[in-house]
Amino acid sequence: MTVLVRELEGGSTAPFADHAALAIARRQLEDEVASAARRVLPAQAVQPWLAPYWQALAARAATLPFRGDADSHAGNHAAPLWLRAGDWAAASDAVERIESWWRIPAPLAWMTEARYRTEGLDAAWPLLAELAWLVPAWFTPLLRILSDASLDALRRRFDAEFPGSGQLDDYAWFPAWLLLVKPALAGRLGEARVRRDQAASRATALLGEILRREHEGDQGELVSLRQKLSRLHAGLFDVYMATRKVQYR
Does residue 170 contact residue 136 with C-beta atoms inside 8 Å? Predict the structure, then answer.
């Protein structure tokens, strides 16, 4: 209670001079204040009580540029602080001010969470796909943060069914696999920015084209497209063909 009372007595509202000052304030709020709040307050009251303090940190960090040169620096930005405060619109605005944010793991993950919180899973699919392609190791931690029952069920099914290596890099293929089990998502996943340097991204775009050709009945072009898919990932191609055998049996 002493820690919480001290926090209630007020702190500085001045902008942070640098990232080091923000890091100190963030750690103090995370390690001391948030910990004390969890020990003293009912569980459902912790986040509402802490939200104004995360908002205050975010406002003070608004002028600091994004520094992604190390994982320890990535969190020292206004966007993740707005997320902690539950202000999804402010988090989205903060990410938008980072140049080429969709090419950088941390801002892309922040924007994906903000999009999910404001518009739901359907709207977040393109960004989820881009995150899986860009940095698969960040994909499952974000799923834990989102805690979406349907998304978690799909991840467990992917873990059980996808013919991969069993490593985190397998999640780069999650969007392509998803098209086979949820073809209705082809439109949404088609909105994702394709990464031509990533085989998994190209495979997702290719599967989208295959599904379109199948719908149009263009059998001639399908043979060539299926061969390209097989060269990108033989296991994924086997999954695709298995779904077609069941469909046309």
Answer: yes
159-179 residues labelled b (16+ CB within 10 A) or e (exposed): eeebebeeeeebbbbbbbbbb
How far out from the chain centre does Cα 178 lie? 16
pLDDT digits (tens, 9 = 90+) for 7-18: 887 777 899 999
Could you tell me the end-to-end alpha-carbon distance of the chain, in angstroms, rounded to an integer? 67
**What are the backbone dihedrals phi and psi of residue 75, each rounded to the nearest 5 degrees, phi first?**
-75, -10
- Locate the domains of the chain by residue range: 1-107, 120-249
Angle at 149 between CA 148 and CA 152, to 5 degrees: 85
- Residues with pLDDT less than 50, the chain: 246, 248-249
Amino acid at 151: L
Residues 29 and 101: their CA atoms lie apart, in Å, by 26
| pLDDT number for residue 248 | 41
DSSP E strands: which ranges in 23-177? none
- Dmax over CA atoms of the chain, in Å, equals 74
CA distance 187 to 209: 11
CB 217 within 8 A of CB 244: no
Q: Where are the beta strands (DSSP E) in the chain?
A: none
